[in-house]
Amino acid sequence: MTPIKQDTPTTTRPGEELNIHALQTYLDDHTPDFGTITNVAQFPGGYSNLTYLLSVQKSGLSEQEYVLRRPPVGAKDIKGGHDMSREFRVLSLLRDAGYPKIPAPVVFCEDESILGCPFYVMARVPGVILRANTAPKMAIPADTMRRLSESLVDNLVQLHALDIQQTGLNQLGKPEGYVKRQVDGWSKRYLAAQTDDVPAMTDLARYLSDALPDENAPGHNAPTLLHNDFKYDNVVFDVDALTGPSATDVRAVLDWEMCTVGDPLMDVGTSLSYWAEADDDPFRKTFNLTHLPGNLTRHAFAQRYAEGSGRDISNLLYYYIFGLFKNAVVIQQIYGRYKKGLTNDPRFAALLTGVQTLSQAGVKSVETNKY
Question: Who's near 75: CB < 8 A, 6+ residues apart?
């Protein structure tokens, strides 16, 4: 059994190293008293943006830890993706709105001469990030896993309860026509990144366009803040939460790059699309740990959200299918970079299987009317 401990970085992957001298010089010029970088390591999780741990020594203080986020190699080929400035802006707005469950933003750099791309630095929030490849080894009891999954849903409810007008968070997007723009946009992204013929992707794109919800219908949910990637490995849990009830199970929510405002069921559908169950295809279970004993089912997740938020989820199936389609497009984009030789990460070689698996799951949901 793997002991429960704080998320741990490892050696930086070849080809993804940082120019420490240039980074230190920039931080000295733009962040007074930041301190001296004594070590850099890379967090191994994730298939998208690259995340590094900076160990920093400040005069007269104990060692401090910060996190640096930057886009992956080849990200310029993906229009509208990996926007570091947007993610930093979201963190700053959430901080100003008094939302406590975020890492404190420190500095954003748009000068690509420093690291070859935009990047930003934030404070590190210590805790445990439950990843699909490590959490099963922790042998987390089923009753604990159930409580953590319930806490995840409850935190999504809390996030959607933020008043986007009073906090100014409404400036992050245009909710009118949001779902249609998303469907059109992700369909175009797929065509731009496509490398192989996957009929199920074509079928899903057609379904999503034909069955588009009417946002002017009576009872349609009012817009909220959307995280747009809400799942286990984007949440930092308190270490004590994994051994027993703690005062605050969730310490921070991470990865705000795609945050905007719009239909809250887009967030719920995306979360459900990650929510693999025990009898799902093995590929889906490699990307989340929700298939472990004790976790809520997708149906129970949806019901808990409905009860906590008071929102109508009668059309949630559509949003779940969109989530599957969007995730498949993201995987296709990553696979496309690999096919072009823009990354040599061996994890990417078999990702076409993921595009096929998720799109086929979406078609099955359309046929069975079940998520």
Answer: 81, 82, 117
Nearest to 343 by CA among 66, 11, 48, 120: 48
Which amino acid would we find at residue 343?
T
Quote the tokens at residue 225. 């803040």
Domains of the chain: 20-123 (3.30.200.20), 135-368 (3.90.1200.10)
Calpha distance 267→316 (Å, rounded): 10
**Residues of 311-321 as b/e, b for ≥16 C-beta within 10 angstroms?**
bebebbbbbbb
Alpha carbons 169 and 173: distance in angstroms, whole number: 8
Question: How far from chain centre, in Å, is Cα 367?
Answer: 28
What pTM was estimated for this model as a whole?
A: 0.86
Q: At what angle do helices 316-339 and 264-274 cross, to 10 degrees?
A: 60
C-alpha 64/C-alpha 57 separation (Å) is: 6
Kindly state the greatest CA–CA separation across the chain.
Answer: 64
List, for residues 2-61, the tens digit of each pLDDT value: 556 667 788 898 889 999 999 999 999 999 889 999 999 998 765 578 999 999 998 878
